[in-house]
Amino acid sequence: MTDTASAHGPNDALTDVAGLRVGHARLSGPGALSGTTVVLAPEGGAIAAVDVRGGGPGTRETDALDARNLVQRVDAVVLTGGSAYGLDSASGVMAWLEEQGRGFPVSREPWQVVPVVPAACVFDLGRGGEWRARPDAATGRAAVEAAVRTEPGAPVEEGNVGAGTGAVVGRIKGGVGTASTVLPGGTTVAALVVANAAGSAVDPDTGVLYGQYFTGERPAFPSPEVHAAALRRLAQAAERDDVPPLNTTLAVVATDAELTRAQAQKLAGTAHDGIARAVRPVHLLNDGDTVFTLATGVHPLGPHPLALNAVLAAGADVVTRAIVRAVRAARTVTGPGGDFPSYQELYGPSVG
User: Does the pTM exceed 0.70?
Assistant: First the structure.
């Protein structure tokens, strides 16, 4: 950890940044293993930026976040399963925002707005057994409505939920994870991730989650016997399944600091370091690793030109911890689309 004086937020979640809400929705029915997660900004929106480093991204409206372009704030960010098909879920979020009169104003009438809803997708096609079971506009609407129903500052559900429903990291079940930190000056920095990577989150020599080496916690090393049994279980799953190594880790890093768009862009970029600590290898051609930044602007950074550094360091730290939490919270899924053991099944709840 870079900022040893910082502390976790009240819920250790993205919603510790006041005004942000998170909603999940998953597909129902046989063969469905996918879903959508929406991060809803406070009314009036938040400064936003994005940094895409994977070689196979699936995104929507990311060009609008370029600091050279017109849009200053966004009202929601969508993370979704379903690969590029699932990006349609953002349409449902747009429709809901339009009904609320929230979006970029384009006319004198307050209801004449165009919501700008950046989105990114993970590859989970067919993991439940049905190739065409993927999120659509109705899934996105269900997720944003779920976000609205939450209380301010509510805990965020983790694991096999929303966009993490069908997530896999290497051969192990992935999912949604979240974490937050409060810096000594009172600024909150938080992250929500969808851990779904072609690389592995587990050190093959020890069985410890890579991210655990960077979280400030002492890893609990599994016994050699437990680690050997886990490797056998994963080998058996690999023999059964021919899973395409097409994956992506997504993150939303948020802060209540007052950032310019350029500073938000820098935060999105350095937050990728948090993915690189927790997943190896990372940013491959078959990953679409994407980090969004949201800044609500409550706390001024201060006059020192290097004041942003603490936020940058914290952003990477919370992304690493969120990935660890995602893998720990995930639960085994076995079905017609594949056998995806969870870290907890392999190593027990107290290891990692």
Answer: yes
